[in-house]
Structure formats: structure tokens, C-alpha cells
Amino acid sequence: MSDVYTVQINELLTFDCLAGAGMTVARNDWVCFRSDRFDDVGRVVRIRPLTSDFDERQAPLLLRSASLVDQSRVNENRCRASALRDQARACVKALGLPMRVVAAHLTAGRDLVLVVFTAPGRVDFRDLLRDLRSAYGLRVELRQIGPRDQAAMVGGLGTCGRELCCSTFLTNFVNINVKMVKMQGLSLNPSSVMGACGRLKCCLEYEYEGYRDLLRGMPRIGTRCTCDGCDGRVVDANPMTQTVTLQLEDRRIVQVPVADLNSNR
Question: Does residue 114 sit in the same domain as residue 176?
């Protein structure tokens, strides 16, 4: 089965690519790839198996390994991109648009500029696009990113005291929801479950599968159970120790292993 190669061209832009016939690619390799709009150079940061839901028709194609000349050209483009970013910020300020330009990328062929921005909502950037094309003399594409991507670019320390996962090793963002918080028995206090980006922490996903497996087969809170002839209601459950806390008919509180429960109803 073929693999999908995630190629990163800067801190914010990645592309899921397919390899050409007979091409061998490893993680951290520098490669040249071609999309339907431009050619570029980037580093392979992730390799995963090709699945049926992946659209192969729209995927960029890896052409070859990047040479030292290609990588030198990338470094030159990054220096030029800083000036392009500042120019875009000046245009945004002149037009009074509610958006913030965070980066600009000049492709390897130097025929396209990708301008990355954040905004609280939808922005009509038609005037900005016209002004940038006139100022650059090149094709321009605008891409809006979310707060997670911005946090990955800026970096920082999490509440755990370590560098943010998104700015160190995470290469893709999964959907994090309140269900993950509740399943792990965590408080819904924003200060404990929100990350630097203002969204639910990515690390909530790390132990989610484990908690889901441990909770499988455990009675839910409120369920009536029988243990050693005593009837009670589950008031708490501990998936790590596989025990539940029962409140018996005489109001006593007992803790028993799940394996000792005779029936659930």
C-alpha cells in the first residue's frame, strides 16, 4: 500500500503528498514536490498509510530529493519572505482590515507568494489581494489559519512546564471535544483544560483511547448494582483501579471491584 507524506514548507504550511514511482522517502528528508498551482521544496515530517478517504487526484506529487542547491534557494526565499510579510502588513493596515498577517512564503519557483493570516471571522480581502498582486508583481494566495496554528508558530510553555506540543513534535491537529474531558473525569474549569491557543488542550487526546478501553464494561454512575447480596447505586467509578463506589440502601458507602459486581440493572 502507498504512503502519504506530510511535507512542511514552513512553520504553518504543510501539504499531504504522494511519492512518484520508485521514489524512496524517509522522515526528515528534504524533497521537491509539485501541486496543481506551484512547485516547492519542504521537509517530510510525517509518513502514514494511504487510506480510502484520501483524495489522490488533488494530492501534490513528490518529484525528487532536494539538492543542496534547492535548500540554499529555500533559505534565500525565506529572507525575501520577511520583506513580503512586512509589505502585506502595511497593506492590511492601510485598508483597515480586521486581520493579522503572521507569515509569508515565497515558493521555490518564485512565482507565487502564500500569505498566512489570522482573523476573528470572515474577511473580504479582495482589495488586499489586488494591492498585493500589484506590489509583488507575482501571484498571491491568502490562507487563513486558526489559533492552534498560530500558537504552534509562536511557541511557549504549557501548564505542564514543557514546551507546547504543537510547536515541538505535533504535525497534525485532531478534533478535541468536551467528551474527552468528561471521560477522563477532569474539571471543566477553563484554566485547567484550555491551552495557550484558547482551545481545549491537544494532550487530552493522548490518554483518551486508554480511558475509553478502561471504562468499557464499567457501570455508569447512577446504575443500581448488587454485590454480595447488598443492593446499591453507583456514585463513583475509578477506571484506573477498576473499582466503583456504591451507596447501599442503608446509606453506607462501600468501594468494590468491578469484577465482584453480580448484576447490573
Answer: no
Is the residue at 80 inside a domain? yes
Whether 218 is in a domain gets the answer no
H-type helices in the chain, by residue range? 68-95, 126-136, 147-154, 178-183, 190-193, 208-215
Question: Is the pLDDT score of 89 beyond 90?
Answer: yes
**Whole domain around residue 155: which residue ranges?**
149-211
Mean pLDDT of 227-238: 78
pLDDT above 50 for 265: no
Same domain, 79 and 140: yes
Nearest-angstrom CA–CA distance, 226 and 256: 11
Please indicate, yes or no, if residue 24 is contained in any of the structural domains: yes
Q: Are 139 and 129 in contact (CB under 8 A)?
A: no
- With a pLDDT cut of 90, the percent of the chain lying above it is 14
Region of residue 185 (left: phi > 0; alpha: psi -120 to 50; beta: else): left
* Sign of the torsion angle spanned by Cα atoms 39, 10, 113, 108: negative
219 falls within a domain: no
Model-level pTM greater than 0.90? Answer: no
Distance CA(137)–CA(146), nearest Å, equals: 28
* Residue 18 C-beta-side C-alpha neighbours within 13 Å: 13
- Domain of residue 104, CATH code: 3.30.300.20
Quote the CA–CA distance of 66 and 25 in Å, as a whole number: 11
The stretch 6-30 carries a mean pLDDT of 84
Number of structural domains, the chain? 4
